[in-house]
Design brief:
The protein has 13 helices and 4 strands. By secondary structure, it is mostly helical. The protein has a single domain, classed as Up-down Bundle (A middle domain of Talin 1), CATH 1.20.1420.30. The strands form 2 sheets. A two-stranded antiparallel ribbon has the order 1-4. Strands 2-3 form a two-stranded antiparallel ribbon. Helix 2 packs across helix 11 and helix 3 runs parallel beside helix 11. The longest helix is centred in the middle third of the chain and has 33 residues. The radius of gyration is 18 Å and the shape is globular.
Length: about 325
């Protein structure tokens, strides 16, 4: 038990540090190939910060731990949307332009609803996983082109702020060789950390008699969402509003398509009815709460940030208690 806890902590540490290096080097690579900064802020950072979830889900899916993979994806969505947004708002109220977030909001609701429908029979076959991956790829290509065409001076300034934070404290990233080396090293750390995380989480779930999806929805989900948390908190301090929220929404779309799809493409994903009836409604309700906050006053106040944190705490309590209702 203690050894598995140590490996779990080590895996989380490797994912956090590797994720930081991966995000920073990804941003620098984008600049080297002349990708617009607005795209860096809205699409690349979202994809880079979800790399831990992607690797964890691929490893879990390949090992037959489908519950852990899906729990990681859905739990990360809840963590991003409620805990991370709540912490951002608690630091500084988040001003937004809802019209600028229309596309990622629609995409997030669409893919969440689609996942509910596709998994209604409590499983996701491999073909469905491939379809989800393709749909996610199409969405991010569309988002890339859309932002590239419609970028504005203030958006570019905000994206530059995100980029500066992502590369801060890493002078070696100024060179192409250093950037490539850090990219590879970060990817290796994330991969190794994900393997340790999956193995130790599975062993802990077995030892405690807890379904692996519960571990995925809580410990693993929070651990793999830490890169988003670091980026979001830094963005909140710099008063980067819409793009910070956009990054989180983009990360959720990636979780619902690329992450779940990757897990399902390896092995058929199965889930139980209690988990389905708890997590999907909680996810959709959380999305509705965030949408109402974003559209009602064009900002998420500190009080509303506290509400989101409280909602996430209640969700975690229900998830932990759910085995008793099986």
């Amino acid at each position: 038990m203690l050894w598995n806890l140590f490996l779990l902590a080590l895996g989380l540490w490797l994912i956090i540090k590797g994720g930081d290096l991966f995000v920073a080097s990804s941003v620098r690579i984008a600049e080297f190939v002349k990708v617009p900064r607005i795209v860096i802020g809205t699409t690349l950072v979202s994809l880079a910060t979800t790399s831990p979830e992607l690797v964890v889900s691929i490893v879990a899916g390949a090992k037959g731990e489908s519950g852990l993979a899906v729990g990681n994806a859905v739990g990360s969505c809840m963590c991003n949307m409620c805990l991370i947004l709540g912490i951002m708002a608690a630091i500084r109220s988040i001003g937004v332009r809802p019209i600028e977030l229309k596309i990622p909001l629609i995409a997030m609701f669409f893919f969440a609803g689609l996942l509910v429908v596709l998994s209604w029979n409590l499983e996701l076959p491999r073909t469905t996983g491939v379809v989800l991956i393709l749909m996610g790829v199409v969405y991010f290509i569309f988002d890339f082109v859309h932002h590239k065409r419609s970028s504005r001076p203030q958006d570019i300034a905000e994206a530059r702020s995100i980029e500066a934070e992502a590369t801060a404290g890493n002078p070696w990233l100024e060179s192409r060789q250093g950037t490539a080396a850090v990219f590879i090293f970060g990817a290796v750390m994330v991969t190794l950390g994900s393997r340790l995380l999956v193995d130790s989480a599975s062993n802990l779930a077995t030892a405690m008699g807890v379904p692996s999806i519960i571990i995925g929805l809580t410990i693993v989900a929070v651990g793999t969402s830490l890169p988003e948390l670091v980026t979001a908190v830094s963005s909140a301090r710099q008063n980067v509003s819409d793009l910070a929220v956009g990054n989180i929404l983009g990360a959720n779309v990636a979780n619902l398509t690329l992450i779940v799809g990757s897990a399902a493409s390896f092995n058929v994903v199965t889930m139980d009815r209690v988990t389905q009836l708890l997590n999907f409604p909680a996810l959709l309700l959380g999305m509705c709460i965030v949408l109402w906050m974003l559209c009602s006053a064009r900002r998420i106040s500190r009080r509303e940030g506290g509400i989101l944190i409280g909602y996430y705490a209640l969700y975690v309590i229900l998830v932990v208690a759910s085995p008793f209702f099986r």
